[in-house]
User: Which sequence fits this backbone?
C-alpha cells in the first residue's frame, strides 16, 4: 500500500514537473528575494492596514479606549490584564495629543517588528530566499491582516513573541552570553505583563531547553538564572497587585474560559474532553489552511540541498506548534473554552517550520506565484474588512459591534446635556465596558469611567466623589440588557434622574453614509446622578 502511494505521488510529481516553465528550475539570485524587496512589501502591507481602518471606521475597537483608560490610572495591574499593554496604549494616545488614530499605527508597528524578527531568525537558519518565504507565508494568515488593525494585547504579542524567540535562539546558539539572557528575561517579563497567556510560550521554551543539547547545556550557565531574575523583578509588582486585589485578573481569565472562578469539578464526559479543543482546532485550521494549500501546491518539490542544523529544526518545530499544543492541552484537561483571539500570536514560527522541515525547492516561478497569491489574499482581506465595516455591520447585522458603536454621538449628547443641566464638566461615566469606555475617550470632558459600577473593575474610583460631583449612567436600551448595577446604585442611596431613552445611528464614515444612506439605529438609555450629594 505504501509503495503504491509513493509511486502514485512520484508519478504525479513527474507529470507536474514536465509542464512547469523554465523559471521553475531556476533558483533566485542572491538579493532577488531579499531584504530590500521584503522591506518594500512589508511597508506597503503596513501602510494599507494603517490607512484602511481610518477610511472605513468611525469608531475604535473596544480594547483601544479600555487600555487608554486603564493606563491613565498608573497601576501595576488591571481587572483583565497586567499593566504593560495598558501603559503602551495610554502612552501612544498621550504622545499624539490624546488621539485614537495612533492605535492603527502602533498595531502595525508590532506586526512589522514581529515579521522583522522572523526574517532575522530565518537568516540565522536558512537561505535568504527561505527566510523571505517564511515571512511571506505569515502574510497569508489572517492574524496579520484583518485581525491586526486592533491595538489589543493579542496584536502586541505579534511583536513581542517573535522578539523573545529571536533572543532566546541567540542566547542558546551564541555561547550563552549574559547579555542575551538578560534580554530574554526582559522580553519574557514584557510578554507576561502584556498577557498571561504567554505562559504557553514559556512552557515551549522550557521544552526546547530540555529536549536539545544546547538547551541542557544552558542550565549549567548563569545566564538563564539571571534572565529569570529580571523576569521576576518585572512581574513582581503585578503579583503583589493581584494579591491585594483578590486575583481579579485571573478570575476574569477563568470566566472567559468558562471555568467560573476556578477549575470545574472533574467530569468524565466525551463532550468535556473534546468540545472546546476541537472547536479551537477547527477554527485555527480554517485560518492556517489559507496559505498552507498554495504553499504545498507551489512548493511540492523538495530540495535535499537545503540543509539546516538539527538544533534549529528542533527549536522551530517546538516553538511553531508548542504554544498551540499547550493551549489545546489546557482546554482538554480543564474542560475550559479557548477564546479565538488567544491563539493569534501562536504561529510566528510556522513559515520557518515549513521551510526547515519540508525543505521546499524554492525557485523563481513558485516564489512569484506565491507572492501573487499573497497579493490576491491581501486584496480579499481588505475587501472583506471594508465590506464588513461599511455595509454588513452598520446596515445588516442585528446587533451593534464595537467598531460601529455610536461613541462620538452618545458622548457629545450626554456631555452637552450634563453641561446644560449642571454647568460643570462631566466628571464620571458609569456603564458597561462598551458605553463607559466610549464616553470616557470621546467626550471633550474626558470623564473617569466606572466600569459596571464595580470597584473591582475600576479601582481608582471613589464613590463618595461620585456622590459629590455626580455622573452620567449610560446603558443598552434593549429590555433584556438592563444592567444589574442600577439596583445596587439605588440600594446604595445614589439618587438618579428619570431615564431618557434615545436612538442613535451606528457609527459610519460620512463619505459612505452620503452614498448608502442612513444605517441602522439602536436604542440607548441614560440618566444622571446629580452632583452635590453627601
Assistant:
Amino acid at each position: 500500500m505504501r509503495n503504491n502511494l509513493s509511486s502514485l505521488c512520484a508519478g504525479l510529481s513527474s507529470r507536474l514537473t514536465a509542464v512547469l516553465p523554465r523559471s521553475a528550475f531556476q533558483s533566485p539570485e542572491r538579493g532577488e528575494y531579499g531584504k530590500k524587496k521584503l522591506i518594500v512589501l512589508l511597508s506597503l502591507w503596513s501602510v494599507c492596514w494603517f490607512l484602511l481602518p481610518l477610511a472605513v471606521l468611525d469608531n475604535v475597537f473596544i480594547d483601544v479606549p479600555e487600555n487608554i483608560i486603564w493606563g491613565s490610572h498608573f497601576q501595576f495591574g488591571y481587572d483583565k490584564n497586567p499593566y504593560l499593554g495598558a501603559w503602551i496604549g495610554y502612552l501612544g494616545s498621550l504622545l499624539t495629543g490624546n488621539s485614537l488614530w495612533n492605535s492603527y499605527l502602533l498595531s502595525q508597528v508590532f506586526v512589522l517588528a514581529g515579521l522583522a524578527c522572523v526574517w532575522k531568525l530565518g537568516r540565522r537558519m536558512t537561505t535568504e530566499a527561505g527566510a523571505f518565504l517564511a515571512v511571506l507565508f505569515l502574510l497569508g494568515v489572517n492574524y496579520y491582516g484583518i485581525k491586526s488593525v486592533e491595538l489589543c494585547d493579542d496584536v502586541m504579542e505579534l511583536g513581542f513573541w517573535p522578539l523573545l524567540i529571536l533572543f532566546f535562539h541567540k542566547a542558546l546558539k551564541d555561547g550563552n552570553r549574559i547579555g542575551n539572557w538578560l534580554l530574554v528575561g526582559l522580553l519574557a517579563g514584557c510578554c507576561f505583563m502584556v498577557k498571561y497567556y504567554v505562559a504557553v510560550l514559556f512552557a515551549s521554551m522550557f521544552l526546547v531547553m530540555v529536549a536539545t543539547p544546547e538547551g541542557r547545556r544552558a542550565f549549567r550557565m548563569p545566564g538563564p538564572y539571571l534572565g529569570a531574575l529580571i523576569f521576576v523583578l518585572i512581574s513582581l509588582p503585578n503579583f503583589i497587585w493581584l494579591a491585594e486585589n483578590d486575583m481579579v485578573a485571573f478570575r476574569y481569565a477563568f470566566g472567559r474560559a468558562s471555568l467560573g472562578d476556578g477549575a470545574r469539578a472533574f467530569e468524565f464526559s466525551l463532550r468535556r474532553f473534546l468540545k472546546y479543543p476541537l472547536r479551537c482546532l477547527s477554527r485555527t485550521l480554517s485560518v492556517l489552511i489559507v496559505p498552507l494549500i498554495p504553499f504545498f501546491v507551489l512548493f511540492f518539490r523538495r530540495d535535499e540541498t537545503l540543509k539546516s542544523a538539527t538544533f534549529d529544526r528542533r527549536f522551530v518545530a517546538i516553538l511553531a506548534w508548542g504554544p498551540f499544543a499547550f493551549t489545546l492541552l489546557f482546554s482538554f484537561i480543564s474542560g475550559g473554552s479557548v477564546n479565538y483571539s488567544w491563539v493569534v500570536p501562536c504561529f510566528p514560527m510556522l513559515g520557518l517550520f515549513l521551510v526547515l522541515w519540508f525543505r521546499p525547492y524554492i525557485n523563481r516561478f513558485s516564489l512569484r506565484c506565491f507572492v501573487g497569491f499573497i497579493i490576491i489574499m491581501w486584496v480579499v482581506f481588505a475587501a472583506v474588512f471594508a465590506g464588513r465595516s461599511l455595509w454588513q455591520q452598520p446596515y445588516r447585522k442585528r446587533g451593534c459591534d464595537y467598531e460601529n458603536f455610536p461613541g462620538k454621538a452618545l458622548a457629545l449628547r450626554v456631555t452637552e446635556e450634563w453641561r446644560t443641566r449642571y454647568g460643570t464638566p462631566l466628571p464620571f461615566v458609569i456603564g458597561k465596558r462598551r458605553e463607559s469606555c466610549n464616553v470616557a475617550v470621546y467626550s471633550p470632558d474626558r470623564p473617569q469611567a466606572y466600569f459596571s459600577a464595580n470597584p473591582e473593575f475600576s479601582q481608582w474610583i471613589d464613590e463618595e466623589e461620585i456622590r459629590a460631583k455626580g455622573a452620567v449612567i449610560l446603558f443598552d436600551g434593549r429590555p433584556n440588557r438592563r444592567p444589574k448595577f442600577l439596583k445596587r446604585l439605588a440600594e446604595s442611596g445614589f439618587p438618579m434622574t428619570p431615564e431618557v431613552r434615545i436612538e442613535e445611528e451606528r457609527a459610519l464614515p460620512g463619505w459612505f453614509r452620503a452614498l448608502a444612506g442612513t444605517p441602522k439605529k439602536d436604542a440607548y438609555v441614560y440618566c444622571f446622578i446629580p452632583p452635590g450629594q453627601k
Observations:
- Strands lie at 428-431, 448-451, 471-476, 500-505, 521-529.
- The longest helix spans residues 364-396.
- Confidence is low (pLDDT under 50) at residues 261-268.
- The radius of gyration is 26 Å.
